[in-house]
Write a structure and sequence with these properties.
alpha+beta, five-stranded mixed sheet, globular
Amino acid sequence: MDIADLPPTLAATLIRQLLPLGESRRLEFKRVSGKMVGKALETVCAFANTAGGTLVLGMADLKEFQGSARLFGLEENAEAVDELQRKLLTEFLPAVDGLQLQRMACMLHNGPARGQAKGQAGSVLLLRVPRSPHVHSIVNGGTYTRLDAGNRMMSAGEVTALSYQRGERSASSEPVAVPLARLQTGAWQRFAAHRGPLTGTFADQLLRIGLADEVAGSVQPRRAAVLLFADEPGSLLTAFDSRADIRLMVYDGKHAVAGATPNLRKQAKTVRGPLVDQIDAAVRLVLDELAQGLTLSSSGFRTVHAYPVRVVKEALVNAVIHRDYRLNRDIFVRIFDDRIEVESPGLLPGAITPATIARAGSKARNPLIAANLREFPDPPNIDAGEGVPMMFAEMAQAELYPPQYRQNTEAAVESVTVTLYNLKRPSAWDEVSDWIDRERSIANADVVRIACVDTLKASKMLIGWREQGLLVALPGRAKRNMAYTKPSVADSPLTLLSHLEDNNGGDS
């Protein structure tokens, strides 16, 4: 694993940015010593298993030294650095891919250590760790997760839960004690007729196509088979502490009002049935609601929804196919005056983040479901991995804001919400969006230059985008120098600057 040398100007800039910072969820500092190697491996493991991060070697913690006195350099123990490089390749199960080693030249601390002269030239090392799609352990050393400013060994239960979150394991592939007779339904008949002739008993057929397992001498269907064929899979799976239905809520206004009298425009609807029928029914219900339009309570005028039909359908299909079926929560579709929200239980699987999903597309958390849905007549999915990029392209063509993806990790049941805004984006948004992609954040003065508007208009635009959830404020900024970024950029674990910003006011 080679070490790349950063250009001197960039190295000096990053050193200046790092010196006032302390450790956080995605940033850690270590002096180089013999004991450093084991601790560094724990940090790499924890970063990979959490949100990614950067380990700075050769720099002391802010709690011990301040300013340039933190710069002890790799020269303090070059042999330990060599040992760490070797073990990064051999000590993880599975191997951690995508590690980057970048050396930054600097002047070392003002006090001699191990014979160093004051002000001696040296270097520190950035070890950058991406968020991994897998769950990693250290050989004979345990599995670690990252805390706010440290690492913790995970319990066996936590490792299992993380493997589900990352999509390493899928609840849809696990057998459940549901009688096979409950799956010999009209949905199965349509599936079998379209897929082609299957021989043997019903149990044999399910075993042959990977939708059942032999458990203690009997054949049990996998959860995917229950979801695909049972008349009411959600009702059957409640016995296993999970759900499989869709709830449709239509709200009056732009926000859900909590309390004894929620601001629902009509009674909420539950969509049940085998997944292929559930998707079809949910799409029809949502499109029917959108076709009727909504009368805005504040004005009496009717709003016309302009979402592309393909985008609405894809959002619902993805929610059903990629949800985490071990979680005891339904999919929620919420229609407001200005947007649709589709909330699906479970976090984004693999290494996908809100910042990368537009390019990377979706990852099949439930490959058995995705593969077998294609075998129905008029399947809702083609399983080609192009659905999410299509959503972004279609919304852009309709001159609407791009789909907004957010992960909710604070709720009792973790989830992903995709929001589709029924709002024509102003021409300035594309330039603002491009600016943030390049510069990571934007301030009022930047909008003034980009959009050719005055300060007040720029401020109103920024506030509007923030209220819509398109932008979030950078933490730790005073009002007079406020700056904003996209939620997806704020959540990105892959750039050093995001780690630096964490320390200016907490994690994004």
